[in-house]
Design a protein that fits this description.
It is built from 20 helices and 14 strands. Helix 2 packs parallel to helix 3, helix 4 packs across helix 6 and helix 18 crosses helix 19. It folds into three domains: 128 residues, Rossmann fold, CATH 3.40.50; 152 residues, Rossmann fold; 142 residues, Orthogonal Bundle (Helicase, Ruva Protein, domain 3), CATH 1.10.8.60. By secondary structure, the chain is an alpha/beta fold. About 6% of the residues have low confidence.
């Protein structure tokens, strides 16, 4: 029977984890304190440790991780928290945690993660102690904003692939931040001292792109009065980012394949093979498997660039990140415009959360920049938003201000106003409390407690 240690200061969460894992047939020991867990490191025969990151006034989950790394390096540690952030997710992986899970967690996914950790422990029984690498600096990618489960997966993939030499394919819709991910991979790789050179493959014709990437020999074409080094030569020892690689033509695909296979290029009009030492990170908004089946993209090139794939979720699939991104961009442009009074009025957040964002994060950034420029006193109002976002304001206001069950059709207390607003959001989400908590900007556990306080215990049950 596997022996699992749980470290969680919240009694409800601790008892829930205990019940889930005992049901799976594990022997479980649950502690409320990080200090108690640290005291057990190296003394208890644990197969797995699951620890919350924030443990009140006690030692943190990272302290628990460090203690087990030092005294029981063979024991995998899963960190779990409701306060997932970029630095925490990246640091957890870089410091040797097996995985990093964000609350509210899905029970099925959690049990799968536990099973994978235990299986990995069994398979790597002879070399568990080598998992943690001493002296490696934590990886931070503060330029990428988001704390949703989908983005935490992205951060973990970046952390794992950055130290390697593997070619990476970043897949995502336009505006999701593919170049930011590519830069993060480069910045935290052994090539960080070298150049990072990006090229948009759709911005140039194939002939110009060929010359841009590979350079040209003197006299190769009219106007080529001297030889010119291309991007692959300029990026020696660094990283080349090929954005929208799915749009390049057949001739260019063949030449890129040669670079990846042989590590060499030939300048346009030249005959000499030039060795290049670069790492390639490619990006596309296309499904390259479909392009291969349609005969528009070489299968051999696809296999060469698809060593590791990182998929970026569109913004509509991570609505809980919209408030974080809004604050980030508001701070960015408020600092630029020297508007210390910048803020967002009530009602704007719900409009932003309800929009589909076809242009993803890039579109949100443009919206915030525009809205701040139009805001008279620095506070963004619904009327400062673009028409496609603000046009629902009137309908939303009408439904909230008039008719049966309206939020402010009388003069309610603040507590009553809160209760009515929660009811409205629950109704709009069809009773989905996870989605309601995201819109309300609170943890799901807080929503449950609010419902219980209102005597609605049945509605406070988990809806996973």
């Amino acid at each position: 029977m596997t022996h699992i240690l749980i470290v969680e200061d919240d009694k409800v969460a601790r008892e829930l984890l205990d019940e889930i894992l005992r049901t799976e047939g594990h022997l479980v020991e649950a502690l409320p304190s990080g200090d108690e867990a640290i005291a057990r490191a190296g003394k208890g025969d644990y197969d797995l440790v699951i620890s919350d990151v924030r443990l009140g006034d006690s030692a943190s989950g990272f302290d628990v991780l460090a203690a087990f790394q030092q005294k029981a390096a063979e024991t995998p540690v899963i960190l779990i928290t409701a306060f997932g952030d970029v630095t925490g997710a990246m640091a957890a992986i870089q410091k040797g945690a097996y995985d990093y899970v964000s609350k509210p967690f899905n029970v099925g996914e959690l049990t799968k993660t536990v099973s994978r950790a235990l299986e990995r422990t069994r398979l790597l029984e002879q070399n568990r102690a080598t998992r943690a690498r001493e002296g490696e600096k934590p990886t931070r990618i503060e330029s990428i904003v988001g704390a949703s489960a989908a983005m935490l997966d992205v951060y973990k993939m970046v952390a794992r692939v950055a130290p390697t030499m593997s070619t990476v394919l970043v897949v995502g819709e336009s505006g999701t931040g593919k170049e930011l991910v590519a830069r993060a991979i480069h910045t935290h790789s052994p090539r960080a001292h070298g150049p990072f050179v990006a090229v948009n493959c759709t911005a140039l014709t194939e002939s110009l792109l060929e010359s841009e990437l590979f350079g040209h020999a003197k006299g190769a074409f009219t106007g080529a009065v001297a030889s010119k080094r291309g991007i692959f030569e300029e990026a020696q020892g660094g990283t080349v980012f090929l954005d929208e690689i799915g749009d390049v033509g057949g001739k260019m695909q063949a030449q890129l394949l040669r670079v990846l296979q042989e590590g060499e290029i030939r300048r346009v009009g030249g005959t000499e093979a030039i060795q290049v030492d670069v790492r390639v990170v490619a990006a596309t908004n296309r499904e390259l498997e479909d392009e291969v089946r349609a005969g528009r993209f070489r299968e051999d090139l696809y296999f060469r660039i698809n060593v590791v794939t990182i998929r970026l979720p569109p913004l509509r699939e991570r609505p809980s990140d919209i408030p974080l991104l809004t604050d980030h961009f508001l701070a960015k442009y408020a600092a630029r415009e020297r508007r210390e009074d910048a803020g967002v009025a009530p009602g704007v957040s719900s409009l932003l959360a309800g929009y589909a964002w076809p242009g993803n994060v890039r579109e949100l950034e443009n919206v915030i920049e525009r809205a701040l420029a139009l805001a008279k006193d620095g506070v963004i109002l619904p009327s400062d938003l673009p028409p496609e976002i603000a046009r629902e304001e009137a309908a939303t206001s009408t439904s909230m201000l008039a008719g049966p069950g309206a939020i402010v059709d009388d003069r309610p207390t603040l507590a009553e106003l809160e209760r009515r607003y929660i009811e409205l959001i629950l109704k709009e989400t069809g009773g989905n409390k996870k989605r309601a908590a995201e819109i309300l900007g609170i943890d799901r556990r807080t929503l449950y407690r609010t419902l219980e306080r209102e005597g609605r215990a049945a509605e406070a049950e988990d809806d996973d």
